[in-house]
Design brief:
TIM Barrel, alpha/beta, 5 helices, nine-stranded mixed sheet
Length: about 210
């Protein structure tokens, strides 16, 4: 598989926020979101055999592993890697855009699926049928850039009863929407969603490999 980086940091998002985690960033992504902060993972990377990836992770001695991108499911080798990491006893999460089929993902993996809002420029790529494959332990994430984005996400949550399926996360787009503004909208509408900030951005800004 082609890897952009493997690094040790704190998980900055979703239900495992704050846990020391090994991140495996696969190279390549078919989407071009307007707010993307990992465009450096679109191209390049290095070819690494799965056994070496697993060994590099083991050397860092951390229970939590997050496979991310780019869009990790764009590489077929992602699926066996996820299963192998589960077999090794890791708590494995997958960060995916939701534009690709999640049905083949090992059920032991926690899926964090980012449903794209209109301001991303890629919301028409959302694969809504993926929702049927989400488990209660998975998470749906909306990155909100504006009031229009919020209303779109709010309507998706309510009309599709998304909070009945799994945990739903609303996150303000870094540098585009004031966190307190999003928090106020959620409270005013009494939405059954979890507000989140990107912890790694709070700690380290946009520094790569964090």
């Amino acid at each position: 598989m082609r890897i952009t980086e493997i690094f040790h940091s704190l998980q900055g998002e979703a239900d495992a926020v704050g846990w020391p985690t090994v991140f495996v960033r696969l190279t390549g992504c078919p989407l071009r979101c307007n707010y993307c902060d990992t465009a450096y993972a679109f191209h390049g990377g290095r070819k690494v055999e799965q056994d070496q990836v697993v060994a590099d992770i083991a050397a860092l001695g951390t229970h939590h592993v997050c496979v991310t991108g780019g869009e990790p499911l764009a590489q077929p080798a992602c699926l066996p890697l996820l299963s192998t990491l589960c077999d090794a006893g890791h708590a494995v999460s997958l960060e995916t855009s939701g534009a690709l089929n999640i049905a083949p993902v090992d059920p032991r993996v926690t899926i964090v699926m980012d449903l794209k809002t209109p301001a991303s420029g890629e919301h028409e790529r959302n694969r809504w049928e993926n929702i049927e494959h989400l488990k209660p332990s998975d998470q749906l994430k909306f990155v909100v850039c504006s009031r229009a984005d919020y209303e779109w996400a709010r309507d998706a949550v309510t009309s599709r009863a998304l909070a009945d399926r799994c945990q739903v996360l609303f996150s303000p787009a870094w540098g585009e929407l004031e966190p307190a503004e999003l928090a106020a909208w959620i409270l005013a509408d009494r939405l059954p969603v979890r507000f989140q900030l990107q912890l790694h951005k709070v700690l380290w800004g946009n520094e790569p490999g964090r």
